[in-house]
Every structure is written in structure tokens, then in C-alpha cells.
Structures
1.
Amino acid sequence: MRRVVFNQKGGVGKSSITVNLAAISASQGKRTLVVDLDPQCNASQYLLGMDAFTGAEGPKPNIGTFFGQTLSFRIKEKDAREFVHPTQFENLFVIPSNPELGEIEHMLESKHKIYKFRSLLLNLEKEFDVIYVDTPPAYNFYTLSALIAGDRVLIPFDCDAFSRKALYTLLDNIQEAREDHNDELKVEGIIVNQFQPRANLPKQLVEELISEGLPILSNHISSSVIMRESHDRAMPLVYLSPRHKMTEEFIALNGELGA
């Protein structure tokens, strides 16, 4: 399964959701890969800490390396597995991002490299049970590449009125990508994140979206300071605090997805 976590709005928890769902999958014995397509590199640093970009042998081959090599026919392309790096957690692997992705985006667009990422994931799919793709907070070359490469989309939603307005545009973009490039793509569900069950506005927004027929997933993710600690320690919640309420929410969400 190739699962894309996508929202054009920043700050909705894409990287946190990507990494924690992937970590739960890995903890349950599934070989799991996270691909970080966001130039902010949050998922990479979450999983690798200070080693996100370099190791003992120098800079790690990353998703920027992959896209960069497609721009020159003179460069012999690396095997897809060379971009994959183990994390400290069993069964959990990552292709890290690169802050320089933005600098080559226009060249990739002008040379029509929009299907290259799909080829990479198809080459790796036989090696992994689940592949998660963390995307930038924008609808651009990289997010479209991910939507073309994926077969499922998860949409984080943070119970905000502005997020609701953006949600309709986002769904239109996914539909366009499906019609133009990838008819196998399906919206797996909308993940309600940073949910406050005792506050009226979040409950009202969620109820209204459900009434509109949108695919709101039943299990919501609340807000807690432990997530910040999890980021700081580069340790997903299932390893940091397996019995915490927020960890249990992610496990329940993972179960709902059937992952």
C-alpha cells in the first residue's frame, strides 16, 4: 500500500500523523517505509534526529538526490534501495528529504518528471508492506507526484474554520489528480487532529462535515504536550510512551485504517 498524507495547509500535523502511523505499523511487524517529500524535512528529523542528513560515510542519499539524478541523462541512476535508510526502530525505514528540493522544482516541472516518483515507489513496493509519503503544505510538483504515486490519501484536518474552507479545494485537487493521472487513487479518510472534545466549535465542524458526506474517520487525535517531547527526542509515541492516551488514539486510528 502506498499511502499519501496530504493537506495544502501547514500546521495540521501531517508529519506527526505520518510518522506515528508508520511507527505503529512497524511495531506490529510490518516492514514500513516513510518517504519525506517536504523540504522542511520534519519527518526526516523526527525519525533520524541529528543524523537526518549525514551519516558516518557522509551525506545520505535522499529524495533530493533521487530527483536530481533524473535531470541528467549522463548520471547513472542509483538503485531505488540506495535511498532507503534504516531508523533505530525495527521494521521502520525512511527516505529522507532535502531542504534543496525547492531549488530544483522548476527544472523537474520543465522536464516533465512528474511520473518519476511513482516509478521509485513501484520499485520499492515489493520490499515493504506499507509506504507512507509525507507531503509539503502546498499543491505543487511534489504533492502531485505523490498523488500520482499513491493509491490511498489521508487528509489531516485540525478543526479550524480556515481549514474547512481549504478542505474543499484540496478535495477538488485530489479529484483532478485522479481524473488526469491516477484513477486508482482513493481518499481513505479525513483525520481529525488536535481535537478538543469538550469545545463546541470542533464538535460542530466535525458534525457538519459528516452531514455533508465527507469521509471523516471515527477515531480522532487529540492534542498533548507529549507530541512535542516525541519530536524533540526523535521517538514516535508508540516507543516513547506506549500507554499514553494519544498513543492509544493512534493505535485505534491505525486499526480503523486496517493498516
Note: The longest helix spans residues 161-180.
2.
Amino acid sequence: MVIRKKLRAYADLGIDRRMCFQQVGALPHESVLRSIRLVGG
């Protein structure tokens, strides 16, 4: 519920995009880079 309020506050300011950090844990660096390339397309 708190997340919705925060996102609504951003939307009210005109912010319609957010970048999110994803925990990669024990993934090897190359796997992380590959994932970024696939998502970024």
C-alpha cells in the first residue's frame, strides 16, 4: 500500500518512468551484462 502512495506522488509530479535496481545476488558478471543487453534491446 505504501508503494502505491509513493508511486502516486511521483505521478502527481509528472514523473511517469522509474528505473529499478534488481538484486543480482550471486549471478556472474557476464550473466548480468547479458541480461541488461537483452532488456535494453
Note: The chain has a mean pLDDT of 81.
3.
Amino acid sequence: MCRLKLQLPLDMTLIMQEARGPMSRVCLMILAVLVLALASGCARDRNDDDAGPEALYAEAQRALNNRQYDAAIDKYRRLTTRYPFGRHAEQAQLDMAYALHRARRPEAAITTLDRFIRTYPTHPNVDYAWYLKGLVHYDQAMGMLRRLFPGQIVDRDQESARRAFMDFQELTQRFPESRYVADARQRMVFLRNVMAEAEVRIGEYYFRRGAYIAAVNRSQYVIENFPGAPANADALALMKRAFERLELDELSADTRAVLELNFGDASGDDDADRRGLRRLWPFN
């Protein structure tokens, strides 16, 4: 809101009469330009202040559609501050979270979504809030380079992957009829495969260091917590080799029997080819 007040002479001709020389005329011209600029700015501020929630929301949507994410975020924030109640303010929070996500500000996006979920737990679009929250964590876990080079995904910290999995799981459990469930479930399968693969990599590290019991425990964790993941074959193979090093022949033989029963001839020793994107993302 413009609060600037200018005290100007009522009769500008008095100034003109007192002006002498070219410098005075230049000063008057500069003053006139400044007055017009200030008046124009005040008019824009008054129009912005007078805009209702519908107009502000429409402006924010135009900015969002034009991928002007910072401008959209600013307009959504002004809308929710000026008109904190009503359907436009509620939807603006969701749209602002999406804009924050596209602007690569994941922490702010998650904070906005958590606030929305707490404030409007029965909102018709709260399922989208859970889905978008999962997407934010999912993109943090994957990243563009990790999409291009999937073999490097499992070498990263898996905390974001775990959070994304939990967000998608919350969506599927709370809103099984949501239109976002199908996509969320596919992403959950991918995340499950990635996390299982990462655990096996850790187990293999323990094995190379001679920590065979730790390798067995890590393999058992994969089998118990990631059923159906392709890495289960690797986990069983790793467990078998660890038992052999521990000279636990009976346990090694039992593990080999389970491995052959469930995965045929898979031994886990030549699994480099299976650690690609097709292995982790088994969808067309």
C-alpha cells in the first residue's frame, strides 16, 4: 500500500514564473517525472490492494502456467496472507507447494504441504497433498543425474527414498480410491527395489571387510523388509557366502536351497547386468 503524501503548490504556474534559466527548467522536468512515477506506483498498489481473492488467484495461476514460479509463489503467499479463509486460500496453499517444488525449494514445499495436511485434514484434495509430498521426496532421492545413471542411485543416502515411500504408503492406505494411487504404487515398487539394492551393497561392503555376521544380518533385513524386490536373490547369495566363510555349512546349504527354489540358478555372483534401470523399474 502506497503511503507517500506529496505537498505540492496548488498553482504550478507560480513555480514556472519563479523558474529562471535552463537548470530550473530541467529540475522542474525531473520533478514532474518523479511525481508521475509515484502516482502511477500508488495507483498500481491501490489496484493490487483492492483485488479480490479471485483476481489474485487468477494472477498466480497465470504466473504458474507460464512457469514463472517465483512470481507465482509471491502471489499465492500474498493471497493466503490477505485472504486467509475461503476456498481460494486453501487451494492457493497446494498450488504454492507445487510452485515451490518446481522452483527446486523442496524444504519449503514440504513445510507448506505439512501445514496444509494439518490444517485441512478433510479437504477434498488432501490426497493430492500426500501425493505431492511423496513426489518432492522422490525427486530428492532420484535427481536428474540419478535418472540418467540409475546404477548410481543405490550409492546415495536413502533417507529421501524412505520418506517418499512412507508418503506414498500413507496415500494408498488413507485414500485407496484416489486417482494418484496407481502412480504412487509404481513409484513405491521402484523405491522398494532401490532401497533393497542399497542394503545389499552395504552387506557386500561388510563381507569384503570380513564382517560376515553383519553381512548376514543385512541380508536378512532385506529379505524380511523388502519382499518381492529383485535384490532378494543377491541377499540370499550373500548370506550363503557369508555362512560359508563362517564355516556354517548346514546354514549355507539351507540358504542355497532356498535361493535355488525361489530364483532358479541365480547365484548373485554375476548380477551386474541385473542392476540396471530395467531391474529396478520393472514397468513399460
Note: Residues 3-16, 37-48, 268-278 have pLDDT under 50 and may be disordered.
